[in-house]
Amino acid sequence: EVQLVESGGGLVQPGGSLRLSCAASGFPFSSHWMHWVRQVPGKGLVWISRINTDGSRTTSADSVKGRFTISRDNAKNTLYLQMNSLRAEDTAVYYCARDALGGTVRLDHWGQGALVTVSS
Amino acid sequence: DIQMTQSPSSLSASVGDRVTITCRASQTIDIYLNWYQQKPGKAPQLLIYATSNLQSGVPSRFSGSGSGTEFTLTISSLQTEDFATYHCQQIYSTPHTFGQGTKVEVK
Description:
The complex is a heterodimer of chains A (120) and B (107).
Chain A: E1 3-7, E2 10-12, E3 18-25, E4 34-39, E5 45-51, E6 58-60, E7 68-73, E8 78-83, E9 92-99, E10 107-110, E11 114-118
Parallel strand pairs in A: 2-11
Antiparallel strand pairs in A: 1-3, 3-8, 4-5, 4-9, 5-6, 7-8, 9-10, 9-11
Chain B: E1 4-7, E2 10-13, E3 19-25, E4 33-38, E5 45-49, E6 53-54, E7 62-67, E8 70-75, E9 85-90, E10 102-106
Parallel strand pairs in B: 2-10
Antiparallel strand pairs in B: 1-3, 3-8, 4-5, 4-9, 5-6, 7-8, 9-10
């Protein structure tokens, strides 16, 4: 069974840092591109970042570029999102998602989400 | 960035109704559009990819169509478990932007 489990969320002050982890199991993690998507409770989904299979290529939304870094450790089957210089507007539930193999981009499995609250 | 606009933002419907949700892109995205369903407190689930391809396990009452800038998600006969929020996402280019969501509520 495919499982994605996020951890590392919590309360952080503006300007602070946090690292989210996404532990993957039940599939060949190193074969899949991975994404991060966030959602302010009650609002829409916002695509944040993606990473290729070996971690050599990443793309991020302008809203987080230079502050957030996506990375992965295929030996540990884990995806990361390092978040620096956090702002109140970064408060959201953060989801990791698997990109299905082959064909077009499609996020076919998602984690349960990790809540990040940026507040003093 | 490509802007995605869904309409309506919410709708009320009854079990058995035919429901149509529209998603418009600010520029052409060919057929590179996905649909997701999200229930309260849960992660989104992939319904349809590349405009019209049903994800494995998704009931056949769901269908998608369109190309270019206008797309539709249709539920042919709404079931109780379909009351949820639906999101479109363009995967033509990064950032892979989503629409604002359409909430399907009980009438």
